[in-house]
Design brief:
36% of the residues lie in helices and 23% in strands. By secondary structure, the protein is an alpha/beta fold. The relative contact order is 0.05. Belongs to the GARS family.
């Protein structure tokens, strides 16, 4: 067959050899038949064993059927098929099965099938018929090339300049290469980019390379194999084999679409691999020949064993993309300023990605974010992670496991269970069943389940969830990715018959606003369901500009989210648009959305007005009708939606049908019942789990009932008791090293917010453990926490995004680091700072005075393991002159808010002498820091940092501690920490006004709503000072177990425990830093004086503290 379409695209003559038209559906029949013809009668009588992903098995079955007819005797066959094979091929194999044929599905892949087949052959003395790596098989496949050449001669088309053959296991390609040996026809292989046989790489290396771990799985299932040794031996020595082209999945789909578009037939993806590669070969041929030479390229299409449904599912995305490309050309020619996407298929096909790449402004989610609508599994997992209440569900790829889940749900007293196709968009592929038998029938009829063979079947995928009793409605917002504005809640009538009977449709009517959703409930859902959804998208790097709709079911226990829709639906759009205030410019609002300027009041709607839509359809819709529904709209100032039906009198057509129960007042009683059990928007935690330093301030929050501290210390109870706050107690029942146990325990007892303090826990990803169980965690993700976890990463990050910091070098080799030190010390006035790359409890920084000290420090850190593995790499940077400050900044990934700056005292001795510590004291705010300096820090450090983290897909949600050196040339970053600092937190918290609900403020950072509450935090106008009391010898060797005594501190002074424990009813030291004493005053001098008065209330042997905390601030 000559393809005119391919000829036009490639500008050469392309001739197709269509093995997909074989009775067996592929070229494999040739090799199978040739093999059987060469077996002895005794070998045939013993029976045959093989393994296959599909085509070879089908071919062997058909060849055996022919041989059995000739011999008038059946031939037993046993076939091993991997469960990863396509359902289409498994079904085709089973349809050919006769009584002496056994099909065994194996879950462990093709290699395991091969092993089982050969072991069966030996144990049962059967005859092995391999799919490849057999001389008879290869010679049989060569007949495809011979037949191709004969057909060309018969049609007077002459010799081919090149032929393209799919690679697979190599039998067809090696057979064709052998046939064309000695003629000028070039032979080219073709293979997929993912999970292919690797011929291109093997030819380059000169040996068969082992199969490499792939980044994905190709749709060309026949190519998910390895080269057979015998085929390789032939291919390696063929001088006419040029190479093997590697093609993408998109190219495969495009070729399938091209073939179907021209010839109306279908080819499987493995065939399309060769067709895709022929365009690459054509480019090579055009460069070889002169312009007057007619270049002829042959393509062997290896097979067509694929169902029409699977074929169309694979190619439809490409067809839509071709359609989108045409639209891009059109819109550019018309200078369109904004494209608004609402169609699910467009979003799933990546239309927004394509248009954005072409510079066309878009409203709508990119392909990855559209999974929220197009993948029910993704949506359910997203809801669970982001605390959006949803139905109990299970996701299964195993038929028997799914039945057990259904049986369990029905056994629990649930009358119905919902089955959903995971990969089909909103409101489609949904089936409600009431019995186990009905479930089995639905799984077979609608989900393609094979009732025999392996329980884990390829392509079987199902979402099963509890059936919720109640009435549905929808809330929708327009978002710029950070802020959002709400539409009125509406009710969509989805089934085709009254009283919600009959099959699901695209919508039979809509009323807006729905009285099911009261105003208070609506506000709670907006701040709960919608805010958490938009914040969750931001945290996962999926934020976008567009529409987000959430279908909600109103149960007697409150609203539950069902699923998401990311477009303007039909018919709800027709009901929403008439309610917009007449003077509102919707195009302007959409433009504001694209420029990230959306606010709660961007959309304004007419009050006390209602809209209704009734949809008229033809008879038998939606099962057989292909016509478009007709909508009749009515906007009315009353709640009598029935008046919309007066418009139906003007509509007449044959077979017209419509629902007669479109009603605004429907089930208002249920809304009132739910109002008596109001849904509590999850913005206020009842219980918080925090680190010690933040426990006191959080316990004062009006939304907090109790604070648990983990692991706690001897002061856990005393701090709360002495300050008259909510209860504070130790958290029992889990080990700090077992994050999942800690998270499960927190979930079980109803903790609403977790605030993490220790740096190693944050860096090791504790936030993910809480997020997975649906507990809000005020801490950045593991990815964002790398800012503190690796100083090398932090420096590279700052360099990449132009964030000012010290000049530096990074080294993981002692010799290279030492050479760098010798080089920089050639300048006698030059000083350096050496920092261990990893976490070192705040002590991983040394400031050598001389080259000798620096070299010794490097040996100690990198060779002697002074800081363990944290010192395997180091950062060596210039010593910056200036004054140092610490900035604590809250962030939800986009919005940020900083507390007043503090100044820490790192060294152990007065006058900033001695080694570095975790911090010996701090005061805040710092008088010398002017508003201009703070603004500069926001502009050149903080905003670029948060923006860059979001850009890299690691948005920062939590508290960022930024050490800043204010130099003559401006502020520069010293380091980042990704949690509350100690002792900075104790001082900063004293500056927060008692009326501020810190728990709610932190929770807003976890759900992306900081912009809405950042103005609610109040900061006092005074000062705070904190003095740390440590054990003698700290930060080096020190002794613990010293008895400590405390007397009551003066009013306004708080003594925080750090390294303490209770033993034999005595308070004893248990760490290097033992206490910190913090005080607030109207002036810095007052705060300092109070703090040292508090120090006098503490006593234990060998206690040390600095006596110059905050003196620098007083001097200014």
């Amino acid at each position: 067959m000559v393809s005119r379409t391919c000829n036009h695209l490639a500008d050469v003559t392309i001739i197709l050899k269509c093995e997909n038209l074989q009775l067996s559906g592929s070229f494999k029949y040739r090799g199978a038949l040739n093999k059987l013809l060469r077996l002895s009668p005794e070998q045939l009588d013993r029976g045959l064993v093989t393994y296959s992903t599909g085509n070879h098995a089908l071919a062997l079955l058909m060849a055996t059927e022919q041989m059995s007819k000739v011999r008038e005797q059946t031939i037993p066959i046993q076939i091993y098929v991997p469960s990863s094979a396509s359902n289409d091929k498994i079904s085709a194999i089973k349809s050919y099965c006769t009584s002496p044929t056994t099909v065994v599905l194996q879950e462990n892949g093709l290699d395991w099938c091969a092993k089982e087949a050969m072991e069966t052959c030996k144990s049962m003395r059967m005859t092995f018929v391999p799919p490849a790596n057999d001389s008879d098989i290869i010679l049989g496949q060569a007949t495809a090339a011979a037949e191709f050449q004969d057909q060309l001669a018969a049609d007077h088309l002459g010799e081919l300049d090149a032929i393209v053959v799919p690679c697979g296991g190599g039998s067809l390609l090696s057979g064709c290469a052998s046939w064309f040996r000695g003629v000028p026809t070039q032979v080219w292989g073709a293979e997929p980019q993912f999970d292919g046989p690797g011929l291109h790489a093997s030819l380059k290396a000169g040996i068969i390379l082992p199969k490499q771990k792939s980044m994905g799985m190709t749709i060309a299932d026949g190519q998910r194999t390895t080269l057979s040794p015998k085929s390789w031996a032939i291919l390696r020595d063929q001088t006419n084999l040029q190479d093997s082209f590697v093609v993408t999945e998109a190219q495969i789909r495009k070729s399938m679409s091209l073939y179907h578009g021209e010839f109306g037939g279908i080819i499987e993806p493995s065939s399309a691999v060769a067709m895709a590669a022929c365009f690459e070969v054509a480019q090579r041929q055009v460069t070889i020949h002169n312009a007057t030479t007619a270049t002829k390229i042959g393509v062997i299409l290896s097979g067509g064993n694929i169902s029409a449904g699977t074929f169309h599912r694979l190619v439809n995305g490409h067809r839509r993309r071709v359609f989108h490309i045409g639209w891009v050309v059109f819109l550019k020619s018309r200078n369109i300023n904004l494209a608004v996407f609402t169609n699910e298929a467009d979003l799933a096909a990546g239309a927004v990605d394509l248009f954005s790449q072409e510079g066309i402004p878009c409203i709508g989610p990119p392909k990855k974010a559209s999974l929220l609508e197009t993948s029910k599994v993704f949506a359910k997992q997203f809801m669970s992670k982001n605390n959006v209440p949803t139905a109990t569900y299970g996701h299964f790829s195993c038929y028997e496991e799914s039945l057990l889940f259904i049986e369990d749900q029905l056994a629990q007293g649930r009358r119905k269970v919902v089955l959903k196709h995971p990969g089909i968009g909103a409101r489609q592929g949904v089936f409600v069943i009431e019995t186990l038998e009905e479930a089995k029938q639905t799984l077979v009829a609608e989900f393609g389940v094979q009732t025999c063979g392996s329980s884990r079947q390829p392509d079987f995928d199902i979402l099963i969830e509890e059936f919720l009793e109640g009435r549905e409605f929808t809330i929708m917002a327009l978002t710029d990715g950070r802020n959002f504005t709400m539409f009125p809640p509406y009710l969509d009538f989805k089934t085709c018959k009254e009283n919600n009977q009959g099959p699901m449709t695209g919508g039979m009517g809509c009323v807006c606003p729905t009285l099911k959703c009261t105003e208070s409930m609506f506000q709670a859902l907006a701040q709960g369901f919608m805010a958490r959804t938009i914040a969750g998208l931001g945290k996962e790097g999926l934020d976008f500009r567009g529409f987000v709709a959430i279908d909600v079911i109103l149960t007697h226990d409150g609203p539950i989210a069902i699923e998401y829709d990311l477009g303007l639906g039909d018919p709800e759009t027709q009901a929403l648009m008439p309610l917009i205030q007449p003077d509102l410019d919707l195009a302007k609002v959409l433009a504001q959305c694209h420029s990230d300027q959306i606010s709660l009041s961007s959309l304004l709607f007419q009050k006390d007005r209602f809209a209704a839509v009734v949809v008229a359809v033809t008879k038998k819709y939606p099962l057989e009708s292909e016509t478009q529904p007709l909508h009749v709209n009515l906007t009315t100032p009353t709640q009598k939606a029935q008046r919309a039906y007066s418009g139906m009198e003007a509509v007449k057509f044959e077979g017209m049908e419509y629902r007669t129960d479109i009603d605004l007042t429907q089930t208002a009683a249920l809304a009132n019942a739910c109002e008596r059990r109001p849904y509590q928007c999850p913005t206020h935690p009842e219980i918080s789990l925090v680190n010690v330093e933040g426990a006191l301030e959080l316990s004062r929050a009006r939304s907090v009932k109790h604070v648990f501290v983990f692991p706690g210390n001897a002061g856990t109870h005393e701090v709360a008791a002495s300050n008259g706050t909510a209860g504070i107690s130790a958290f029992e029942g889990a080990s700090s090293s077992e994050y999942h146990d800690l998270a499960k325990r927190a979930k079980d007892i109803g903790i609403g917010l977790v605030v993490v303090g220790p740096d190693d826990d944050v860096v090791n990803g504790i936030e993910e453990s809480f997020r997975k169980v649906g507990v809000s965690c005020f801490a950045p993700s593991r990815e964002a926490a790398e800012l503190e976890g690796s100083k090398v990463f932090a420096k590279e990050f700052m360099n990449k995004f132009g964030i000012p910091t010290a000049h530096h070098g990074s080294f993981d080799n002692l010799e290279a680091a030492s050479a760098y030190v010798r080089h920089v010390f050639t300048d006698k006035d030059h000083r350096i700072v050496i920092k261990a790359d990893g976490l070192a409890a705040g002590k991983g920084v040394v400031l050598p005075e001389t080259p000798e000290e620096a070299l010794e420090d490097l040996r100690s850190i990198m060779s002697d393991g002074k800081f363990s593995t944290a010192g395997s790499s180091v950062v060596i940077e210039e010593y910056m002159d200036g004054y140092e400050i610490s900035i604590l900044t809250f962030s939800d990934g986009k919005t940020f808010f900083s507390l007043p700056p503090g100044q820490d005292h790192k060294r152990i001795l007065e006058g900033n002498k001695g080694p570095n510590t975790g911090g010996m004291g701090v005061y805040s705010p710092v008088p010398m820091v002017t508003p201009d300096v703070l603004q500069k820090i926001d502009e050149v450090i903080l905003k670029p940092t948060f923006d860059a983290l979001a850009k890299e897909g690691r948005p920062f949600c939590g508290l960022l501690f930024t050490g800043v050196m204010v130099t003559k040339s401006g502020p520069k970053v010293i380091e980042y920490n990704v949690r509350f600092g100690d002792p900075e937190t104790q001082s900063s918290m004293l500056l927060v006004h008692e009326d501020t609900d810190l728990a709610s403020f932190m929770l807003s950072c976890t759900n992306g709503t900081l912009a809405q509450v950042k103005n609610s935090i109040r900061i006092k106008s005074g000062f705070a000072c904190n003095v740390v009391i440590a054990s003698g010898g700290y930060p080096g060797d020190y002794k613990t177990g010293k008895v400590a005594t405390l007397s009551s501190p003066p009013e306004g002074v708080v003594i925080f425990h750090a390294g303490t424990r209770k033993e034999d009813c005595l308070l004893k030291t248990a760490g290097g830093r033992v206490f910190s004493v913090a005080a607030y005053g109207d002036t810095l001098e007052e705060a300092r004086r109070k703090a040292y008065m508090g120090v006098d209330c503490v006593s234990f042997e060998d206690m040390v503290y600095r006596k110059d905390i905050a003196l620098g601030g007083l001097a200014k």
